[in-house]
Structure to design on (105 residues):
């Protein structure tokens, strides 16, 4: 068997990114005594997954509180643009320190 030294080229089939990357907000060092908001696109099993996450986080971080996804609306379909546009003020009004966003499928 002979080893080839030929180089092959490959092209990426996707286009350029449509949205410029942004730096995420600083994360809290701990979720102890913090308020966590759950965001969901209402696509896949969030009503099952978020309670599991909440129980696990409550076991690890004393005083953690949660704001359910129903407080925000769906981040996909219908009025998603209005929901996303309202998020900064809604998170501030509800005193949310961190967010877990569930994107099903």
């Amino acid at each position: 068997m002979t080893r080839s030294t030929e180089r092959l080229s490959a092209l990426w089939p996707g286009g350029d990114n449509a949205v410029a990357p942004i730096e995420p907000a600083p994360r809290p060092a701990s979720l102890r005594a913090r308020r966590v908001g759950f965001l969901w696109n209402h696509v896949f099993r969030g009503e099952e997954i978020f309670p599991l996450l909440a129980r696990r986080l409550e076991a690890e971080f004393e005083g953690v509180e949660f704001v359910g996804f129903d407080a925000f609306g769906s981040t996909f379909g219908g009025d998603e643009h209005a929901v996303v546009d309202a998020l900064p003020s809604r998170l501030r009004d509800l005193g949310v320190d961190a967010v877990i966003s569930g994107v099903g499928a």
Remarks:
- The CA atoms of residues 39 and 70 lie 8 Å apart.
- The chain has a mean pLDDT of 90.
- DSSP finds two helices and three strands in the chain.
